[in-house]
Amino acid sequence: MDLILQQTVNAFALGGTYALLALGLAVVFSIMGLINFAHGELMTIAGYVLMYCGLAGFPFVLSVALAVSAAVAAAVLMERIAFRPVRNASGATMLVTSFAIAMILQVLFQNLISARSQAVVLPQFLSDSVQFGGLIIGVNKIAAIAATVIMLVFLDRFMKHQKTGIAMRASAEDFAVARLMGIRANTVIAGAFALSGLLAGVAAVLWVSQRASVDPLMGFTPVLKAFIAAILGGLGSLRGAVAGGFLLGFIEIYLAAFLPQELQEFRDPIGLCIVVAVLLFRPNGLIPSLALKAEKV
Amino acid sequence: MITSPRTHMLAALSAIIAGAVGTALIASFLGPAAERIVTVFFISLIGVVGIGIYSGNSGILSFGHVAFMAIGAYVSALLTLPSQLKIATLPNLPEWLATTEMGLLPATVIAMAVTGLVALLVGAAIGRLEGSAATISTLGLLIIVHGVIIGWRDVTRGAQSFFGVPRETGIWTAVAGVIVALVLARLYRDSISGLRLRAGRENAIAASAVGINIPRERLISFVLAGMTMALAGALLAHFLGAFSPKKFYFNDTFLLLAMLIVGGMSTITGAVTGAVIITLVTEVLRRLESGLSIGGIELPAVFGTTQIGIGLIILLAMFRKPEGLAGLKEWEERLFPPAAAGNAAPAMPKAHASTPLVAKGMTMRFGGLVAVSNVSLTLQPGEILGLIGPNGSGKTTLLNMLSGVLQPSEGTVTQGSVDLTGIPSHEVADHGIARTFQNIRLFPDLTVHQNVLVAALSTRGGAEAEERAQAALTELGVAALAGENAGNLSYGDQRRVEIARALACQPTLLFLDEPAAGMNREETDALMETLRGVTRNLGIGILMVDHDLALINQLCDRLAVLNEGKLIAQGTPAEVRQDPAVIEAYLGPGKLSSKKNTKPQGQPGRKPELAG
Fold it and tell me: Is A39 strand, coil or helix?
């Protein structure tokens, strides 16, 4: 029983990080149809800023704020420089553009920083743990869950009550009509990228605080997972992205904990088989995007 | 059968053979280093067109086909590996496999067959998925196959290098392979199945409505693509001699996809262009990467120049040419545009003798909203039935249920003894019911001729398809536009092409959803003449939705009126015009009854033309 509870906490912590990343992908996808593979590089940028701030001896709160701001700035720049020219192109074209950006950034990290993994100085309290009854939970896990909840609440309020958030939701349902209503395309898209950068930055801090290191390819795996989570939840649907992120976190943690030893090396294939099986029953994801229903025959 | 002109095919195939052989001759003249580069290039090209066979024609981006390359590599290598080495390095291999040793050709053929079988199973499982769900399941396939290869140590040596494979792939083997792959891909693109799949890529709903079974065509291309990837894998394995699962993972997937998309996904010309450009850039930059001296100035070696260069080339190509460098047409299609149709168009074939279409108790609910409620209709062969009603009264929904686009919540549709209730749209089309759409659904990147031809090929067993297509184009007066891309036509012409496409299905019944929308008076009159001719001469029954009441009144034998999902009147136009329920639906209450009525007149959204 304790093991199950323990793993459930782990699953929430991991699933929350996936959910934040998947949300970042979904915010951009729902508006411009781009699956941004360079989202992982936003994470890497935030990770490196955290590392340099740690080396400079900044207080942790300041380091986190700088890291997240760096990810936001990088996301907005990425949109302005690389994605604006291909804004109206097909999904495949935008996807390949994002591959290219990811590739260029990775090589730059390797050349300008280091090809090897770098240690990140983290405050001591993150590696402590707290005891609840029979449960021992790491502070970093609690922080991850808390940060996820705060971000989700913030995002929910932003999307429902802020003018820009409402404009984004309108644009996600029908971009052409939203523009005719006077919503500025550049503002909405830049806003979506800023938001995705914010989510990637927070996710990066959570990710790094579990591992205490950064490397040039750091962002690849989590974003690949987030991509899977976003589609599992229903690509373009924000609630779906959260649901998909948590479900994927649960699948991974439970398989790691409860799969027999001899099957452990088939863990990823088995996890993906489950994902594909879910998709076969719900081809548009757990919570399909509204834009899918809008198509009239 | 091939659906494009013979001159195109001859030009394309001879260019493929001449290009491959010519490149190889130049390479062998330049020496072994050039030979190696060209061999690798040819193998990549096989992989690129392999992905293109599926992704290009179906429009679904696949991350998974490199997994089939891996299967092809491992299967073929297991068959050609010398028996003694196999026993030494893979002691747990089953006896029959350990003692098997064969040449590259049979091993490649077997590898392709095995991979084809795997692709058939995978494709059948994930074939129902659309768009991004399909893409993610192919990504899943890549990770799953990679995981299985690493885990299945007894057969694959796990993550370790699989070595000792005879290096039998020389440049001429690669030439043979690349010719097979390119010819296969080019033939498939313009085969009946390829054309159907491309129509499905352009507009899935319309493709089903002209009788195309999209999942089946997708499966065919998925398997063909898988087998082509296996060919690339087998050749690569026997070129390298030693390889590990990492060789068939994300890096190569991204590289092949980049080649495909930079060149242009939907053509063979594009695949070749992309592969050539990225290979050339890679080779040039690789030399720069190790440092260079130009005129005495030493350039420093910069690690990763190649990757940055490829990245920049991709960005540049995508910024300039988002559709890919080669665009949407093959080179020979640009160079020799198809001639306009011959003037001796055959006559439209008569509709098959048919029984009335009977719809009973049709009901459609969307959540709590009842869009159509208990509507019963009969459509006789050779008559024109007009379906009218205010906006939102359920006309299009009814049409969608009758044509199989929507599954009715309740009710039955029968034609004679055939029950058409709930069968998929492409089978409805094959039962002789063709339709057009309110918001035009053509296949915009196919030519007008291909739009109509694919419909003829997918109905009535495809018999005399070319003749039916020509006849339909002539009937609607759009034969002169046959070579144009459908997406470039004016609105009225698009409507006419859509009707021609429906007629090419040789239907007994034709459903038209607002056929005259966007046409001026003269065009509407001409359309009316055409439709009259179709019913009178060919015996086709028409069910028509339109808001142009002049058209409806003059053309229709009978009218059915819907309001708020219910059938409120049926009869000749004259009868319907007098019907109190109809007048109330269109003009609001009060027009007829006492002046004491309190409701306001002329509710918003209602159309007042009926009385006028």
Answer: helix
Whether B314 sits inside 8 A of A99 (CB atoms) is yes
Which of A97, A3, A8, A113 minimizes the C-alpha distance to A50? A113
B590: left (phi over 0), alpha (psi -120 to 50) or beta: left
Minimal C-alpha gap between A14 and chain B (Å): 20
pLDDT score recorded for residue A247: 95
Contact B265 A92 (CB under 8 A): yes
Distance of CA B114 to the CA centre of its chain: 26
Model pTM score: 0.88
Q: Which residue of B has its CA nearest to A263?
A: B151
Look up residue B95 and give its two tokens: 């006896």
Bridge pairing between strands B558-563 and B384-388:
parallel
CB contact under 8 A, A108 and B308: yes
Span B93-119, pLDDT tens digits: 888 898 889 999 999 999 999 999 999
CA pair distance A256, B255, nearest whole angstrom: 32
CA distance B562 to chain A (A): 19
Best of A36, A80, A95, A96 to substitute, by most chain B Cβ atoms within 10 angstroms, is A96
Is residue B511 helix, strand or coil? strand
Compute the distance between CA of residue B365 and CA of residue B408 in angstroms, rounded to an integer. 8
In A, minimum Cα distance to B205 occurs at A297
Structure tokens at B303: 């690690």
Contact B125/A280, CB-based, under 8 Å? yes
**Residues from chain A contacting residue B151 (CB–CB below 8 Å):** 265-266, 269
ipTM associated with this complex: 0.85
Residue closest to B51 by CA, chosen among B262, B207, B243, B195: B262
CA distance A29 to A192: 9
Pair B515, B544: CB distance under 8 Å: yes
d(CA A199, CA A24): 6
Helix axis angle, B491-504 relative to B448-457, nearest 10°? 20
Q: A34 at the B interface (CB within 8 A)?
A: no
- Of chain B, the end-to-end C-alpha distance in Å amounts to 54
Report the candidate in B66, B380, B46 with the shortest Cα–Cα distance to residue B232.
B46
DSSP B132-173: HHHHHHHHHHHHHHHHHHHH-HHHH-TTS-B--------HHH
Contact B277, B263 (CB under 8 A): yes
d(CA B312, CA B282): 12
Q: Distance (Å, rounded) from C-alpha B117 to C-alpha A272?
A: 21
Cα of A226 vs its chain's centroid, Å: 6
| Distances from the Cα of B494 to the Cα of B17, B340, B570, angstroms | 39, 17, 31
Phi-psi region of B392 (alpha: psi -120 to 50; beta: other; left: phi over 0): left
Q: What is the DSSP string of B43-99?
A: HHHHHHHHHHHHHHHH----S-HHHHHHHHHHHHHHHHS-HHHHHHH-TTS-HHHHT
pLDDT in tens, A33-87: 888 989 999 999 999 999 999 999 999 999 999 999 999 999 999 999 999 988 8
Check whether A188 has a pLDDT greater than 80: yes
